[in-house]
Every structure is written in C-alpha cells, then in structure tokens.
Amino acid sequence: MDSTHWAPDIIRADDGSYHMFLTVVPGIFNDWKHPRYMVHLRSQDLRHWRNARILQLASDRVIDATVLRLPEGGYRMWYNNEVDKKSIYYADSADLENWIDKGKAVGDQSGEGPKVFRWKEQWWMITDVWRGLAVYRSDDLLSWKRQVGGNLLEIPGHGEDDGVIGGHPDVVVNGDRAFLFYFTHPGKRGADQKKDGKEQRRSSLQVVELLLTEQGLQAERDAPAYVRLSND
Q1: Does domain 110-232 have CATH number 2.115.10.20?
Q2: How many CB atoms lie within 10 A of CB 190?
Q3: DSSP code at position 147
C-alpha cells in the first residue's frame, strides 16, 4: 500500500546513531479522516534508515514531531495531536526508543508543526496556526506562555514567492544568531487563494533572521538574511 511521509525530525544520539521521527499516512486519501502515525527509524549514515516502528502516543492521528535533548538528560518530543483540536502534546524518553506520553503542552489554540529551541537564555516554541506563526516562551520546557501581539509572518512579504503568510517553521541556532526557515504557497493569494491547482500547491522555502526585542521574538521578512553558519 502506498503511504505519504510528512515532516521528519532527526536527532543524533550519544552513541553517534541518528534517529528520525516521521509522520506516516498509511495511504493516499481524498480527505483528512484517516490515521496518521509517528514512526521511529534509526540510521548510522543519514542515508539508510532501518528498524521502523510506530510509536504509541496520545491518539492514532499524530503529526509533526520536534525532538530535543533535555538539560537534565533524556529527550522530549512535542507533536500535534489532531484528535484534541490539534493541540500540541509531548512525550519523554530516556533513550529515544521508549516513549511515555505526558499529555497536553499547549492548547490555547489549534496549531501544528511545533519547533522547540534554546536561544538567548530562553526556551522557545513556534507553531503554525495558519495565520502566521505563534510564539511561546518557557523557563522549564513544561509551562508555556504565549507571546502577545501579532504572529510572526502573518503579514505577507514583498520578496519573490513571499507574498503570503509563512508556514511550518524550522529554526537553526548558530552562535548568537537564529534563522527561521519556513515555506509559502505562493499561489494562495487574491482571487486564487482558495483554488487547488498546481500553483496553490507549489511550495517555496524562505529564510529570515530572528530578532529578540522588548516585544519578544520578531522576524522582519523583507530584510535581507545573510546566513553564514559556523561550527562554533
């Protein structure tokens, strides 16, 4: 049976092995009323992935994992539980193999594609709420406070393929800088916004540098983003 693969997240374990957490839809469907599983795979070289198995999480409709090494040891996964109004749930593991679901992490609004990261002495979570990207802050990775004000990337930009809201983020922290990678569907604007053609499905990857101001995380999407990553 054909399957659809979504939103992989990869983390490296202490023994050098790589672990992928992949959303798998067991089929190709015409609606959203079907199971979606979180599948764990292992690799030694990032090319050959083996030992695929389904994780037992909060429901049979879970998507969009983000996995982080905890400061005190072990790992935490955040994901979207679609059964519970698309709230963000989390699970803990000591070894990336065996996971214990811990319940809801964020449920003040529906969202998906969570990304959790450490930057500027704070823990941050960014989620796609389909009106731009919502931002949350935490001191302990358990209690999350939503940033007030507008969402990131809610206002369309002026760059090529960037004239719509931004979606499904990832963040790369490099030294004291942080870069937000996101995608757009360039054809979803104006009178064509609700069409379902090739141009509406086409995705374009974009990047913007994150800024920390008195108002919290900000992203000036029309400003040039000069990305130079280092190993420091």
Answers
A1: yes
A2: 8
A3: P
